[in-house]
Amino acid sequence: MKKIIQTILQASDSGSLTKIIFAGKRKKSLEYSKITLRPVTIRGEYMYQAEFHFEKKVTHQNIPYHEMIDYASQWICEDFKQINILTEAEDIQILAADPENPRITRRAYKKLRKAAVLDHNRKKHYIIEDGKPCDFLIKLGVMSPEGKVFQKHYSKFRQINRFLEIADDSFRDLPSQGTLRIIDFGCGKSYLTFALYYYLRVLKNRDVAIVGLDLKKDVIEFCNKTAQELGYDDLTFLTGDIADYESTGADMVVTLHACDTATDYALINAVKWHSRVILSVPCCQHELFSQIKEPVNDSYLKYGILKDKFTEILTDGLRGLKLESAGY
C-alpha cells in the first residue's frame, strides 16, 4: 500500500497532475463503477474534486487537499483494484488486487498533456523559469541548452520549483550574514541539492558551504564530477552514513530521502547544531512496526495496513513533539 500512496503523492506534489481514475470494482454490489479525481481551486482554496460514476448519473464531492490520501487509501482498500494516474508527461497504471504488492507500470506521454487548469496555475511564477537557460538543469538533462524543459522531465522541473518555493519561505530564518552552512542527508542524485545551491548562490548571491551525504559511492562520484564541471566550488558530496557523520554545525539540515531511522539521526544532529531550518520528509518508518510484537490479534493492529499507518503516524508525531520541545 505504501508504494501506491508514494506514487500518488509524487504525482500530486509534482504539480503536473491531470487526474486519477479509480476503477475495477472489488465487489459487484458497489453502486458506482469508477471515481475520477481532479485537482481544482474553489474560492482560492486548492482541493480535489471526485466524480462518482453511477449507471445513469455522475455525482461530485469536493475533498480538502490534506484529506485526499485518506480518501484514496479507503477507495483502494475497499472499492477498487486499479488506479490510473495521468500527469502532463506520463500515464501510470497501478494494478492493486493486493494493495501490499501492487504492479506499477509507467508510459511516457508522446505529447505534453495539459495539467488541470487551476487559477493558481495561471498565476504561477516559477523561481526557475522554463525558457531561461539554467546551468545545472542543462547539465542534468532536464533542460535543453536553449532553456527549454524537456517534456519527459517536466514533472521533475515542477518538483524542483516546488522545493525552491519551500526553501524561499525559509530563507528569512537563515542567518543574514556570513557563509550559509547546509547539509543534505540522503541526497541521492541531488537534483534538489543542486537546485538549493543555485537558489542561494546564484539567485540570492549568498556564500554557501553545502555538503551532500549518501551511502551510494557511484552516485556521490557522479555528483562531485557534476559539481566540478559546473564550477559549483562550495558544493561537496561525501559517501557516508548519517549515523556516523560528524560536523561542527549547519544552518540548514535537509533530509528528503532518509529512510527509517536515518531521519532520526538527521534530526538529532540538527537539534545538536541548533540549525535554524530543518527541511525533512520522513519515509519508510519501520522501526516501531517491527517492535510491536504479538499478541495483537485482538486489536486493530492485527490488520497490517492499520498497523503500518499507526506506527508511521506515531513515529512522526513523536518526532514533531521532540522538535517542539527543542524549541522548533
TrEMBL record:
Quote the Gene3D superfamilies the UniProt record gives: Vaccinia Virus protein VP39
Listed A to Z, the keywords are: Methyltransferase, Transferase
GO molecular function ontology, one term from the record: methyltransferase activity
A GO cellular component annotation here is:
cytoplasm
Q: Which InterPro entries match?
A: Methyltranfer_dom (IPR025714), SAM-dependent_MTases_sf (IPR029063)
Q: Does the keyword Transmembrane apply?
A: no
SUPFAM superfamilies on file: S-adenosyl-L-methionine-dependent methyltransferases (SSF53335)
Classification via CDD domains = AdoMet_MTases
Residues annotated as domain Methyltransferase: 156-289
What are the recorded Gene Ontology BP terms? Answer: methylation
PANTHER family this protein is in? METHYLTRANSFERASE DOMAIN-CONTAINING PROTEIN, PTHR13369
Q: What is this protein called?
A: SAM-dependent methyltransferase
